[in-house]
From TrEMBL:
Signal peptide: none annotated. Residues 79-89 have a biased composition (Basic residues). PANTHER family: CALCIUM DODECIN. This is Dodecin family protein. It comes from Halomarina rubra. It comes from the Archaea. Residues 70-89 are annotated as: Disordered.
Length: 89
């Protein structure tokens, strides 16, 4: 049995909602391994002077949870706690 994690990201584009979805996936692959599927959950746009200026697509990404991700997450938590303690000083 495989556990799957789902995260939501927002992609933007000056061209189209489809391009915004591609951008969301492209950027997510920089930090997430093995993305297996996506679901488009929302599409919006910024309008300036009656014209669409920027397309925005909200995407849910699905990827398997691997055992090493727990270890990486624990290391990230430790690094964040250390950084936060430095800021408070």
């Amino acid at each position: 049995m495989t556990a799957v994690k789902i995260v939501q990201v927002l992609g933007t584009s000056d061209e189209s909602w489809e391009d915004a979805a591609r951008e969301a996936v492209k950027e997510a692959t920089k930090t997430i391994d093995d993305i297996h599927g996506i679901e488009i959950t929302d599409q919006t746009a910024d309008v300036i002077d009656g014209e669409i200026a920027q397309y925005k697509t909200t995407v849910r990404l699905a990827f398997p949870v691997h055992p090493h991700q727990k270890e990486e997450a624990a290391g990230l938590t430790t690094r964040v706690k250390k950084s936060a303690s430095k800021v408070r000083r």
